[in-house]
Amino acid sequence: MASCISLYRVSRNKGTLGYKHEEVARFPKASQFLNWIMKNVLQTSEIPSGGDEYEISKEQLENLLEACIRTRRYGITYKRTRTHPSGNKEHLYMVNTEVAKNILPLYEKDGNLYFPSYYDIEYAQQIIDAIQSLNEILSTTNFDRHKIMFSYH
After folding, report:
1. Nearest to 63, CA basis, from 33, 31, 102, 93
2. 139 φ, ψ to 5°?
3. Concatenated DSSP letters of 19-77
4. Which residues pair with 149 in a beta bridge?
5. What would the 3-class secondary structure string for 34-46 be?
6. CA-closest candidate to residue 22, choices 36, 37, 12, 32
7. For residue range 43-81, what is the model confidence (pLDDT) as tens digits?
8. Which of 7, 117, 130, 139 has its CA 20 to 30 A from that of 60?
9. What is the pTM of this model?
10. Which residues are CB-contacts of 115 (< 8 A; sequence separation ≥ 6)?
11. The predicted structure's pLDDT at residue 91
12. Are the beta carbons of 7 and 137 closer than 8 angstroms?
């Protein structure tokens, strides 16, 4: 089963007919982004074919970023930091499920969540990571010369 969305910056290779694909973000098992893309980019309720590439515009990326920021601001609360015996630190978050469902809901089909996804710490971390990734993509991409494509695999 496909379970990852990747974003690529695509540019034409100078002096050739080919294109250069540079992966700029990866969202594994993040069905909230799949759901958002299906509704706002593909305008379908059908999951896209695995491996196919689709263009996502600058405006659509900005709208996705805004949804992530709103979800972070109103639906995710920092709880505490936990230190593992190895010394690694993990930030723990609480997710307000009702807010998250209204802004960036997980993908559901026939009332069942699509991957084993929940409104939990992993959901919160995916939103936080996406804000950073989307900000970077928007600030480093020349949209006159490059396209941003996504694939679901």
Report:
1. 33
2. -85, -15
3. EEEEEEEEEET-HHHHHHHIIIII--SSPPPTT-EEEE-HHHHHHHHHHHHHHHHHHEE
4. 8, 55
5. HHHHHHHHHCCCC
6. 12
7. 988 888 777 899 999 999 999 999 999 999 999 998 889
8. 117
9. 0.88
10. 1, 3, 29, 31
11. 85
12. yes
Written as one letter, the residue type at 153 is H
What percent helix, strand, coil does the chain show, rounded to 5? 35, 30, 30
pLDDT tens string 135-150: 999 999 999 999 999 9
Q: Which amino acid is at 19?
A: Y
Cβ–Cβ < 8 Å for 117, 34:
no
Judge whether 35 and 103 are in contact, CB under 8 Å.
Answer: no
Dist. CA 141–CA 11, nearest whole Å: 10
